[in-house]
């Protein structure tokens, strides 16, 4: 706001004043009395704030925030052109296991996720993560075993995602990434409850937010949770990290001649019954115009490439182009 003039308080109406802090030292001395002067402030010629097209599109993204561990000058020098400013990374439980027989491969989490996410968050890209739990327990597979109903099996699977989220949080914070875990149902001793505005504020402060426990409801997958959280926090894309290079026209494990698809429409996924995401998740993305990038988590550099909007894997519901947004 610019200082347009210094005028006596008595000459101003309350309707023309913005809430300003009075300056006690700004006094005009006369021979008979003192008159207190206030600053008449205006944000523009017509008294209204100028519209910011980026903040109108993403009202919770602040353009004045400096990434953590960066000074203002360093942040300015590190700005690059990226396709997306706020992304949601969906990490499947199977991808966390890697090629190991154990439930979690520490090398996958430390090397492929934590360090690559750190490299982009320090440049100002806001990253949220939804983590699956299939490496520990998959509810749909256990439903019906030993009298276990589907709802109970899904709740156990949600607890498995919390275990993965806490492991991922500890790994990220060990290399200096501020992280928060939010769960869909309350587990106050180990994580925050999911609160949309709090999650957005964490992202604005440069923290990585890990969403666990899916949607908090049975019969919904973590893919659906990823699409839902992406829409709620105004993220621009879902990045689905898997253990394959992208979407193929056939199962590459059975058909070595299967071709990797570069781009797809939402309707292609449903009509061709491609095993990308469940129908609820892909429909939610389609209704909210959220593109989905499917890529291989196990290849070094793929996470940072996907977050930066570089061509990697398969893009659903969008087109690869060079029109990148400045961070």
TrEMBL record:
One of its GO terms (biological process) is 'de novo' CTP biosynthetic process. GO terms for molecular function: ATP binding; UMP kinase activity. Its EC number is 2.7.4.22. Residues 86-296 form the Aspartate/glutamate/uridylate kinase domain. Pathway: Pyrimidine metabolism; CTP biosynthesis via de novo pathway; UDP from UMP (UMPK route): step 1/1. It comes from Coptis chinensis. Belongs to the UMP kinase family. One of its GO terms (cellular component) is cytoplasm. This is UMP kinase. Signal peptide: none annotated. Keywords: ATP-binding, Kinase, Nucleotide-binding, Pyrimidine biosynthesis, Transferase.
